[in-house]
Amino acid sequence: MSAATRTSVPWAAPAGHDARATLAEARDTTRSVARTFAIACRLLPRAIRDDVFLLYLVLRTLDDLVDHGRPDAADRVGAVAAWAERRAGPRTREVAVLEALAARHPVPRRAIADFCAGMRQDIAGETFATEADLDRYCYRVAGTVGLVMTSVLGAREPARAAPAAAALGMAMQRTNILRDIDEDAAHGRVYVAREAVERHGSLAPGLREPLVRDQIARADVLYERGLAGVGQLRSGRRAVSAAGAMYREILRQIERGGHGAAPGRAVVSRPRKLVVAARAAWRA
């Protein structure tokens, strides 16, 4: 087995956890749950691909625990927050993985702490009065992911790369909000700012075109800022460009569907994703 494909055990797993199994789960989770992201990950250098999978597993695990209302969600988020803030806390699997990643990359602990703050907002069921409130939330749950990802990929000028990475993550989160607007509403969740609903009139299918147009425009501004910084990355430029382009295509699909005229989730076909990803990767 070559060095490029050898499965390593890069951290000491906490009691009850197997490092090799965790790495296998990280790979499988990315490929089965995050299909768009998995396409982009194929473009990553082999040397860092597994670290990206592990990072995704940590953040996805916390998000799923919170989203599904698991009774241990607050404790697991708290353990990661304690690690990020250099406080004593349980050494959960997520903490063990982050320790290993931080030994290899300059993982920004402040960003991890901010991510945990966003998870706590979800646990509390917070809503958003203003666009600034929503932007703060999008930064916490997704802009931070861009910052941590950049720490793994490396940046030529971190001070320039960081704002772009955060903007791209925020753009993707705003895209998620628009894509899942009906699904969230069915579960009693609204992630659109109240001021936007009051200004444009309604979230209901058939009545929300002005609101959706406004929210798409806000997301597109963030995509422009985010994708403009891809050139700052030391590696993974093609992967990040492809991921951003594929996610942005969801906005175009929403537009093609009449800006939310009909209920349901906007879905971009796999062939279309591959075309969009290939074009973006070539440009990068």
Using brief descriptors, characterize the structure shown.
Farnesyl Diphosphate Synthase, globular, mainly alpha, 284 residues
Instruction: Give the strand content.
Output: under 5%
> Gap between N and C termini, in Å?
32 Å
Number of domains: 1
What's the CATH class, please?
A: Mainly Alpha
Order of helices and strands: HHHHHHHHHHHHH
CATH superfamily: Farnesyl Diphosphate Synthase
The CATH topology annotation reads as Farnesyl Diphosphate Synthase
- State the CATH architecture: Orthogonal Bundle
Label the structural class. mainly alpha
Rg (C-alpha, Å): 19 Å
The helix tally amounts to: 13
* Overall average pLDDT: 91
Largest sheet: none
Label the overall shape: globular
In total, the number of strands is 0
Low-confidence stretches: 1-12
Helix percent reads 55-70%
